[in-house]
């Protein structure tokens, strides 16, 4: 026999375990049917109650005019009860939510458009350069159009009676000696210039003012285009509008989020009021900054207002000839020109003031289209044409793509007087080295309005051209180009797009070109 069979304890333990297992199985077998019955009864009762409630709700909705049962998908506007004397107002969560939505709804926009009479200009000037630079201001200042503005000087200057109607009011900036200035490379006049908007606001006479526009005494504004830009924005909101420097290095040293004051910038009236309240304390926190522009941007950063960039404001931190930039202006209104003392006159054989007066001829006819580029092709001769309306026409031998022609050619040097193509904050192309690809340039010589259409004439610049050995028609015999274009004051009310041009007539000595809105399916292609 095995030892386990003689062990009484093991026998008893095995017997107990067998008995308990059988008992548990028997108990579970009896309880499981009862549990299932109760579960079925509970589910059935719940279904009956829900069905009765749904039917009663449907009848109630029908009795009330058939309103949507799921009205929570279309929330209605809830009016908050106004508190009355002696009564407490109970505000529910739904009411609070409704009130929050109501307060964040933007105010209705005013239907009346901004005009030049809604703008106040603040012009930074110095007594040392006033006699020369006041001539730039006379080019664009139009008191007959209800312009308002102040020229802020560091010292008194001689005034003449015959200039009272051709220049803004002259004032001397306030004392800034209490402000610290610690930049060894700059000049503390930056402090007084940075406060021009605030000082102008404190003078009062701000009825119907929507915008403050800042500029320098060597800034020339195209005021019609400035108004077009400002009409894009709600003057009741905080806006800081301007553009960057053309110099990549300048933008790195100062900021890519800063409006350069020489090119001009605009500040909405509510933002100007907020700035005036805090600017003096703000300036004290930045004694090490270089100029007025970065001080202004520092205060804007404290107010939490970013720069809204508009490429039509031109700082022109370059030297040399602006032809490459003006001949391929970006597709945006030309708003301003700056640093006119350090660049060559924009038209040849003239001084800068005379050249800008010459530019005013097409400006007065069609300011919206001024300097706007159009690209087309003379297929019969195999030429590419680039028209910068009101400024110049270029003829290139061969076929060049619009992608190439719309990039400015580097006829200028950067702000550090270097011919470095990496120094710009935009794409450029080199001046053509192939003698056959050097463009023939025709400058605007006259412009007039005939039968509601502008007729501008462009005459070839008398400069020597290298010999070209390409076997094709030479443009050197063309003396005059006539361009027809209808004024389009609503050009910038539409989405940005270059105008198209078409060669209407091409002879050995002259060409006739039409410029206007692109027709259906029309492209700048060969």
Structure description:
It is globular, with a radius of gyration of 38 Å. The protein is built from 12 helices and 19 strands. It starts with 7 loop residues before the first helix and ends in a 10-residue tail after the last strand. 30% of the residues lie in helices and 19% in strands. It has 526 residues and is an alpha/beta fold. Strand 15 and strand 16 (453-460) form a beta hairpin. The strands form 4 sheets. It has an 8-stranded mixed sheet with strand order 11-12-13-15-16-17-19-18, with helices on one face. A 7-stranded mixed sheet has the order 3-2-1-4-7-6-8. It has helices at residues 8-63, 93-104, 130-140, 189-194, 196-202, 223-230, 248-253, 269-284, 292-303, 323-326, 352-365, 402-405; strands at 119-124, 148-153, 169-172, 211-216, 220-221, 240-242, 265-268, 308-309, 318-320, 336-337, 373-378, 383-388, 392-397, 412-414, 440-450, 453-460, 480-485, 500-506, 510-516.
What's the layout of helices and strands?
Elements: H1 8-63, H2 93-104, E1 119-124, H3 130-140, E2 148-153, E3 169-172, H4 189-194, H5 196-202, E4 211-216, E5 220-221, H6 223-230, E6 240-242, H7 248-253, E7 265-268, H8 269-284, H9 292-303, E8 308-309, E9 318-320, H10 323-326, E10 336-337, H11 352-365, E11 373-378, E12 383-388, E13 392-397, H12 402-405, E14 412-414, E15 440-450, E16 453-460, E17 480-485, E18 500-506, E19 510-516
Parallel strand pairs: 1-2, 1-4, 2-3, 6-8, 17-19
Antiparallel strand pairs: 4-7, 5-10, 6-7, 9-14, 11-12, 12-13, 13-15, 15-16, 16-17, 18-19
């Amino acid at each position: 026999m095995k030892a386990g069979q003689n062990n009484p304890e093991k026998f008893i333990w095995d017997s107990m375990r067998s008995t308990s297992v059988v008992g548990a199985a028997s108990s579970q077998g009896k309880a499981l049917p009862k549990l299932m019955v109760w579960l079925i009864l509970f589910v059935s009762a719940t279904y009956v109650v829900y069905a009765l409630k749904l039917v009663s709700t449907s009848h109630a909705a029908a009795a009330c005019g058939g309103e949507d049962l799921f009205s929570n998908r279309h929330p209605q506007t809830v009016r908050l009860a106004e508190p009355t004397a002696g009564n407490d107002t109970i505000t529910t969560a739904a009411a609070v939510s409704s009130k929050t939505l109501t307060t964040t709804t933007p105010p209705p926009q005013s239907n009346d458009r901004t005009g030049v009479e809604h703008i106040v200009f603040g012009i930074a000037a110095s007594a040392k350069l006033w006699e020369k630079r006041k001539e730039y201001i006379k080019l664009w200042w139009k008191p007959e159009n209800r312009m308002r503005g102040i020229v802020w000087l560091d010292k008194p200057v001689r005034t003449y009676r015959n200039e009272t109607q051709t220049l803004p009011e002259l004032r001397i900036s306030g004392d800034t000696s209490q402000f610290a200035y610690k930049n060894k490379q700059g000049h503390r006049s930056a402090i007084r210039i940075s406060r021009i908007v605030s000082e102008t606001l404190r003078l009062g006479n701000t009825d119907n003012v929507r915008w403050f526009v800042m500029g320098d005494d060597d800034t020339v504004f195209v005021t019609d285009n400035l108004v077009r830009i400002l009409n894009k924005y709600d003057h009741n909101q905080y806006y800081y509008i301007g553009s960057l420097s053309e110099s990549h290095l300048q933008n790195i040293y100062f900021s890519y989020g800063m409006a350069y004051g020489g090119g001009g910038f605009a500040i909405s009236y509510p933002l100007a009021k907020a700035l005036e309240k805090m600017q003096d304390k703000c300036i004290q926190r930045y004694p090490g900054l270089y100029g007025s522009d970065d001080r202004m941007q520092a205060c804007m950063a404290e107010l939490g207002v970013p720069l809204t960039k508009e490429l039509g404001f031109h700082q022109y931190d370059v030297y040399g000839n602006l032809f490459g930039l003006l001949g391929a202006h970006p597709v945006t209104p030309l708003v301003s020109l700056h640093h006119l003392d350090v660049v060559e006159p924009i038209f040849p054989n003239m001084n800068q003031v005379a050249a800008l007066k010459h530019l005013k001829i097409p400006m007065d006819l069609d300011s919206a289209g001024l300097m706007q580029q159009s690209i087309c092709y003379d297929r019969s001769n195999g030429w590419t044409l680039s028209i910068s309306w009101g400024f110049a026409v270029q003829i290139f031998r061969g076929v060049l793509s619009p992608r190439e022609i719309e990039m400015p050619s580097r006829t200028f040097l950067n702000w550090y007087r270097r011919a470095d193509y990496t120094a710009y904050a935009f794409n450029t192309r080199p001046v053509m080295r192939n003698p056959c690809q050097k463009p023939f340039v025709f400058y605007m010589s006259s412009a007039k309005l005939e039968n509601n259409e502008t007729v501008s004439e462009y005459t070839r610049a008398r400069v020597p051209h290298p010999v070209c050995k390409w076997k094709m028609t030479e443009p050197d015999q063309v003396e005059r180009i006539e361009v027809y274009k209808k004024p389009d004051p609503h050009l910038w009310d539409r989405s940005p797009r270059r105008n198209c041009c078409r060669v209407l007539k091409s002879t050995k000595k002259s060409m006739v070109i039409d410029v206007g809105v692109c027709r259906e399916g029309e492209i700048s292609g060969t």
